[in-house]
């Protein structure tokens, strides 16, 4: 009975390892989930200077960065390559106050090498984002 239980445990471990690896590899495209929708007449577009709050996580839920923790949103020019490609693509057409969760495959984030030690190689990243400001447009 002990050897049967041991074999089942090993088989289950191998199955879970393969399943998790496959799930990680399945993320090939940027996924955008709007978690708080806002109606507006002025949405973000490439070239806008925007301010974003965000929480960055690995797919296992471990946090590697957060503007909320610093109490200061990140300000950057959208669509100019100053941030990872997944942000440039995933943060367009947003309204002030809107929240999105972005699931970003490694090729639109930190690539084959990652950003050690916080972000491993080929890591899919998950960002909870909130648009705080579009330069020249008042906050909500």
TrEMBL record:
Keywords: Isomerase, Rotamase, Signal
Matching PROSITE patterns: FKBP_PPIASE
One GO CC annotation: endoplasmic reticulum
Catalytic activity, as annotated: [protein]-peptidylproline (omega=180) = [protein]-peptidylproline (omega=0)
Ranges where the PPIase FKBP-type domain occurs: 47-135
Keyword Methyltransferase: no
EC number(s) recorded for this UniProt protein: 5.2.1.8
Superkingdom classification of source: Eukaryota
Protein name stated in the entry: peptidylprolyl isomerase
Source organism: Stichopus japonicus
Lineage: Eukaryota, Metazoa, Echinodermata, Eleutherozoa, Echinozoa
